[in-house]
Amino acid sequence: MAGIELRNLNKSYTVDGRILPVLRDLTLSLESGAITVLLGKSGCGKTTLLRLIAGLEMPDSGEIRFGSNSKAAFVFQEPRLMPWLTVRDNIQFGLRRRDISPEDTDRIIETVGLTGFERAYPHQLSGGMQQRTALARALICQPSFILMDEPFAALDHFTREDMQQALLEIREKTSASILFVTHSIDEALTLGDEIVLLSGGIAASHYPVSLPHPRSLYADDIIAIRRQIIAGLEHAL
Amino acid sequence: MHSRQTVSAILRHLRPLIGIAAVFLIWHCACTFGHISAYVLPAPRKVFQTFLKMTGSGEIMRDILVSFGRVFRGFGIAFALAFLLAMLRIAFPSAEPFYAPFVQFFRNVPPISMIPLLILWCGIGETTKTVIIVLAAFFPMYLAIVKGFTSVDPKLLEVARVFEYPLYRTFLRVILPSALPDILLGMRTSLGYAWRAIIGAEMVAASTGLGHMILFAQQMSRTDKVIVGIFVIGTVGCLTDFILGRLIRRFVGGRAQHGWD
Questions:
Q1: Does residue B258 surpass a pLDDT of 50?
Q2: A154 in a domain, yes or no?
């Protein structure tokens, strides 16, 4: 079942009087309940696509159609936490007062491994903990779709692995669909149920990864898909 | 090791007191051995006695309360005006060029220089003094509030958009808290300006207040009372600044070490 349908999306920016097309007639169907990874080189339009889906920007033309009861949440590349709010208040930022349940908040805090830091302010947290808070802020709204824009890009190798693991566990518990943007092939192979290669403003190739988690990046199947992706990237150049 | 740290901590806290004590000692010596006339510079002991006498009679407290009332009335009006106009500036940025020259012009005009005109227009009643304080306190606050509102991180505003915040909620939960350190800093600066202005105003157009007390003492050749007035003004100013500073720390300082990131 399709979670989000993108049809003939076009988006361009004007830079120094020149029109710079970023997305050209992009058509893509994002499966419900799956982790779809958007992969591509820097500047290929991954973030733009995410921002269009989130409604932060408007497409020049085309259509974005959400499935029934779709509720999207966004996890940005930077945590973007409110510096004046504690971890708990930041997590509850997207909720209305009447919707706030202390038990739900505690459960989410436990899920992302921030128990004991509820009253800390963002500047008192490490980068990984800040990103976990941002993830919890998205999760507490019980979204059916989570849009993630290179959320682990600024993290070190081990924190990134922990966060990837946490994300997979969260997906198991919530069965939310995830659209994950990255430029790391390894991250795409670790997380994705489907990898979409974005190039030249279109979805150039699709790579289904129907392997169970956790995945070894040294498994033969994964290495074979990695070769295909690298070939696809080279071909796209 | 521990006792050495304790001693150095005590010395660190004592340094301002040592400085003050040194000034009083020099002052005392100058009056005792320097053959300076008591009219030009009365001894610290005499000034202290005068202070006690004025405190006992209630004279000082009456003048403090009068000046205090004037400062806070003018400061309150200046804050309300600065906040409203800053909001207008944010809501209608295209209107700014129309009034920006006036803001720049009056920002550079000392409110004291307006006193003759204000006496002419508003008389020597409370209105003139209030207007002088408003003029003195308005501009630092207005500029700080505008700066606070215009420098809200657009990335945080995007977070509010993602969570489908309506405008009023975005203002209350993102824009206002984000601008708060600048607003509070502007208020603190303006409070100092308001104190300076009220003393000037009371020296020219008043029959009560600390400014009037100093001027009257000078006319009566009571230099000791003049010095008492100066000390009281400085102390009250420092005290109000300290209280506002504590409030700022309560709102801002507890949430990050040096303001918000």
A1: no
A2: yes
Q: How many CB atoms lie within 10 A of CB A91?
A: 29
CA angle B37, B41, B46 (to 5 degrees): 100
ω into A214 cis (within 30 of 0): yes
Where in A67-166 does DSSP place strands (E)? 72-75, 145-149
CA distance B162 to chain A (A): 7
pLDDT at position B145 over 90 = yes
Name the least confident of B15-19, B134-138, B228-232. Answer: B15-19
Low-confidence ranges of chain A (pLDDT < 70): 1-2, 69, 237
List chain A residues with CB under 8 Å of B178.
Answer: 84
Burial class (CB in 10 A: 0-12, 13-18, 19+), A130: buried
**Angstrom distance (rounded) from CA B173 to CA A179:** 28
| Crossing angle for the helix pair B44-57 and B2-33, to the nearest 10 degrees | 100
Identify whether residues A169 and A53 lie together within a single domain.
Answer: yes
Question: Testing the interface with B: which of A82, A90, A97, A149 to mutate, by most B Cβ within 10 A?
Answer: A82
Residue in the structure block whose two tokens are 């199947």 = A221
* pTM of the shown model: 0.80
Instruction: For an interface test with B, give the residue of A76, A84, A92 to mutate (most B CBs within 10 A).
Output: A84
Query: Between chains, do A56 and B158 touch, taking CB under 8 Å as contact?
Result: yes
Do A152 and A226 share a domain, yes or no?
Answer: yes
- B179 with B145: CB under 8 angstroms? yes
- CATH number for position A186: 3.40.50.300
Sheet of A145-149: strands edge to edge? A72-75, A145-149, A177-182, A35-39, A194-199, A202-208
User: How large is the ipTM?
Assistant: 0.86
Determine the number of helices (DSSP H) and then strands (DSSP E) in chain B. Answer: 11, 0
- pLDDT category at B261 given cuts 50, 70, 90 is very low
Question: Domain total for chain A?
Answer: 2
pLDDT at B254: 52
Q: Kindly give, in sequence order, each residue whose CB lies less than 8 Å from that of residue B261, ignoring residues fewer than 6 positions away.
A: A83, A122, A123
| Per-residue pLDDT at B133 exceeds 60 | yes
Query: What is the extent of the structural domain holding A19?
Result: 2-71+143-236
The answer to which of A58-67, B29-38, B191-200 has the lowest mean pLDDT is B29-38
Burial class (CB in 10 A: 0-12, 13-18, 19+), A48: buried
Q: Is B163 on the interface with A (CB under 8 A)?
A: yes
Pairing of strands A18-31, A2-15: antiparallel
Question: Nearest residue of A to residue B161 by CA position?
Answer: A56
Calculate the CA A65 to chain-centre distance.
18
The CA-atom distances, in angstroms, between B21 and each of A160, A171, B44, B238 are: 59, 69, 11, 18
